[in-house]
Design brief:
- The complex is a heterodimer of chains A (162) and B (162).
- Chain A is built from 7 helices and no strands.
- Chain A has 162 residues and is mainly alpha-helical.
- Chain B is mainly alpha-helical and 162 residues long.
- Chain B has one domain.
- Helices cover 79% and strands 0% of the residues of chain B.
- In chain B, helix 3 packs antiparallel against helix 4, helix 3 packs antiparallel against helix 8 and helix 6 packs antiparallel against helix 8.
- The longest helix of chain B has 29 residues.
- Chain B is elongated and about 55 Å long.
- Classes of the chains: A mainly alpha (162), B mainly alpha (162).
- Chains A and B meet through helix 3, helix 4 and helix 7 of A and helix 3 and helix 8 of B.
Chain lengths: 162, 162
């Protein structure tokens, strides 16, 4: 067992042992987690590519961002909920894992960056012919896409880091 | 040469041995595989939702499909490459895994569903390009595609649990 009392306590709770005992729970929740990764990553990449000027250039940036930002937010909630189930079920493999905490920090950074970059487009009330263009955002859009890739790598490495 | 001998000769190649014995090759391949899955499933879902009648970032279904398909294909090729590399590392084990075989079957069905759509409703897309909701065959193709690809993800994750 681990050295952290909270991990031992969580591991011994009925809900934690139920997640482990019902053998279909962990693979099913992980599959749901991957589907939510697909939603957040594809939504992020499509709007980041529009910000970088490489996708849907005939449409206003705000139109693309407003279409996909709610999907990013919804997918984030599904990711946090499904991730929580995995952490409760196997706290001894997750909560003491430094790759897990690195991933959590990167998720916060990546989503804050995505939100900061998108905020002016979500707030503005301009019509279709009156788009705000911000070419300076292209490097941040690439950084955002790169960060999400690192998050995915970290997620897979959690299983190998212990 | 029978199948078993072929699988064993795949496993004994230098490339397969390197992947099997490296500490980082497998998680790295899995991570790229997940990034590929995210783009395949994400871009296909955008099209599927449009086929079901939920507007995407643009109204024209034809332009939406033409714009997203290159992303889908590049990501799919990345998935096939990384998947093949993981397969050869333990070919005879995967070949006996019912989840792996089920995943291949669902992939074939997803391809069949796409072929039916392209030979049917897609040929008359100019008639319903901006119509919401699209005609019934297109809606069925969108629903079938989403269900089959979600099934591919579920069975893919279950491979590691049987």
């Amino acid at each position: 067992m681990s050295s952290l009392p909270i991990v031992d306590w969580l591991y011994a709770t009925p809900v934690s042992s139920a997640i482990r005992d019902l053998l279909w729970v962990v693979p099913s929740v992980q599959s749901l987690h991957i589907i939510a990764i697909a939603v957040i990553f594809a939504s992020a990449v499509l709007s980041d590519l529009r910000l970088a000027g490489l996708f849907a250039r005939d449409l206003p940036t705000a139109q693309v961002i407003r279409r996909y930002y709610p999907w990013m937010r919804g997918a984030l909630l599904v990711l946090l909920a499904s991730g929580l189930v995995m952490a409760i079920g196997e706290p001894d493999r997750v909560l003491v894992n430094s790759v897990f905490w690195l991933k959590m920090a990167l998720v916060v950074v990546a989503f804050m960056l995505a939100w900061q970059v998108r905020r002016p487009f979500l707030r503005s009330r301009q019509g279709p012919g009156n788009d705000i263009e911000r070419p300076g955002l292209a490097p941040l859009a690439w950084l955002s896409m790169g960060l999400w890739c690192v998050v995915i790598f970290c997620g897979r490495w959690i299983a190998y880091a212990i | 040469m029978d199948l078993q001998a072929l699988l064993q000769s795949l496993e004994s190649t230098a490339l397969a041995t390197t992947i099997r014995e490296s500490a980082n090759a497998f998680p790295a391949l899995e991570s790229v595989h997940v990034i590929g899955i995210a783009l395949v499933f994400g871009t296909i879902t955008v099209v599927d939702l449009r086929l079901l009648g939920l507007a995407a970032h643009r109204r024209s279904a034809q332009r939406l499909i033409a714009e997203l398909l290159p992303f889908t294909w590049v990501a799919f090729v990345a998935c096939v490459l990384t998947g093949s590399l993981m397969f050869i590392a333990n070919a005879s084990t995967y070949a006996q895994n019912p989840m792996f075989l089920g995943k291949l079957a669902l992939l074939a069905l997803a391809g069949l569903n796409m072929a039916v759509f392209h030979l049917g409703a897609f040929r008359r897309i100019s008639e319903w390009d901006t119509t919401l909701p699209p005609p019934r065959p297109a809606r069925l193709a969108g629903f079938g595609s989403m269900a089959l690809w979600a099934g591919v993800i579920f069975l893919g994750r279950w491979i590691a649990f049987v």
